């Protein structure tokens, strides 16, 4: 699990033994309290408490001073006490599949969410799960135990049982990806249809006419979006498709490399590839080079990527970035707004390619 962290070793209460400054260092398991912040700011405990709760009668300068000291000393409110007083946990649960770690998506989305939560009382808890197990279990646990005030999930399906359950329970949540359920819910998504269309267009502009797509798993919503963009572009530009359906971006890099090498040894060989994952593109590159081909000469490759690294290392690959950190920002803002009572229809956003 991942949470905001704190540091120990700063003053808590005036020393009972009398140090040079009248302050003793924190003992082993002591933690900073409101009294610590009050001592360091010269404010009353009630003022400090209200400043941290963003009370409207406390000035902005005072709030900022209190928050700065709270961050410096690593103050965290006692969750049990907060829950007893307010019924809230001040926790947002981010449920991520292990595939997202493999694809390099976990760190940027966690950073993005954490950056938004930093200015709030909320903490982030990351719960990983394996799709080979019950994907509904982590969400059901939060709902049944009250372990969080809101949930963020990803890798949505057209008919997503997790979304249906949280809507049924009227529980605040946001999804990284859309559904096809006819039910309004907060989401942030990337325009995978636009990506695939733009990728085909880029390949056609380089003279490529036999194209293939390494796509997401068929049970995920963004598979449909990416496939629609690819197929529409193929029709619009009048090019040929080479089927590549034995693996998808969730397969191991070894499996992807092996499957693509087999395709390149077959009779109908693509001269243009669209990849829905930056990590999977590494396997494609290995397969291309293992068969003696060269990107930019024998064929061209367009990849969706979560960062600039692939473009730096392999400038011959055409890359199109999905800003996962920005997605984290949007998802955090959406779930916080839903907790505050905003309508789900007002909490839906879509990132598009620049110029599309």
Q: Encode the helix/strand succession as letters.
A: HHHHEHHEHEHEEHEHEHEHEHEHE
> Which regions are unreliable across 5 or more consecutive residues at pLDDT < 50?
1-29
The helix count comes to 14
Radius of gyration: 25 Å
Q: What is the SS-derived class?
A: alpha/beta
Q: Could you characterize what this model shows?
A:
Helix content is 42%, strand content 15%. By secondary structure, the protein is an alpha/beta fold. The protein has three domains: 1-76, 434 Repressor (Amino-terminal Domain), CATH 1.10.260; 85-185 and 325-351, 3-Layer(aba) Sandwich (Rossmann fold), CATH 3.40.50; 192-321, 3-Layer(aba) Sandwich (Rossmann fold), CATH 3.40.50.2300. The strands form two sheets. It has a six-stranded parallel β-sheet, with helices on both faces. A five-stranded parallel β-sheet has the order 7-6-8-9-10. Strand 8, helix 12 and strand 9 (300-305) form a beta-alpha-beta unit. The longest helix is centred in the middle third of the chain and has 17 residues, at 221-237. Mean pLDDT is 86; it is low at 1-29.
